[in-house]
């Protein structure tokens, strides 16, 4: 295998594992939001605001990983 194939595998792992982690995190958070809203409906607006803020932060972490993977794929800092 060449150096380029390792870079492609690393980019795939960064993006794939980041996507899986973000999806699991948002799914768990959404489920907990539904549970909390069912228990205390009067707090739904406060919880919804916090949920969307956290969803944005979780998604931002994934997009940072995508940006790093694209840097490795296109600029290739490890290739001599």
Shape label: elongated
Overall mean pLDDT score? 89
What is the count of distinct domains?
A: 1
CATH topology group: F1FO ATP Synthase
What's the β-strand tally?
A: 0
Distance between the termini: 16 Å
How would you characterize the largest beta sheet? none
Helix content: over 70%
DSSP helical segment count: 2
Set out the fold topology.
Elements (H helix, E strand, L loop, with lengths): L2 H37 L4 H31 L6
Helix pairs in contact: 1-2
Describe this entry's structure for a reader.
It is a single chain. This protein is an all-alpha fold and about 80 residues long. Helices cover about 85% and strands about 0% of the residues. The chain has one domain: Up-down Bundle (F1FO ATP Synthase). It contains two helices and no strands. α1 runs antiparallel to α2 (about 45-75). The protein is elongated. The mean pLDDT is about 90.
């Amino acid at each position: 295998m060449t150096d380029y194939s390792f870079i492609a595998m690393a980019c795939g792992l960064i993006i794939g594992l980041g996507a899986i982690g973000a999806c699991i995190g948002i799914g768990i958070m959404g489920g907990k939001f539904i549970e909390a809203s069912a228990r205390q409906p009067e707090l739904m607006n406060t919880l919804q605001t916090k949920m969307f803020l956290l969803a944005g932060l979780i998604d931002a972490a994934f997009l940072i990983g995508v940006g790093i993977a694209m840097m490795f794929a296109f600029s290739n800092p490890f290739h001599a």
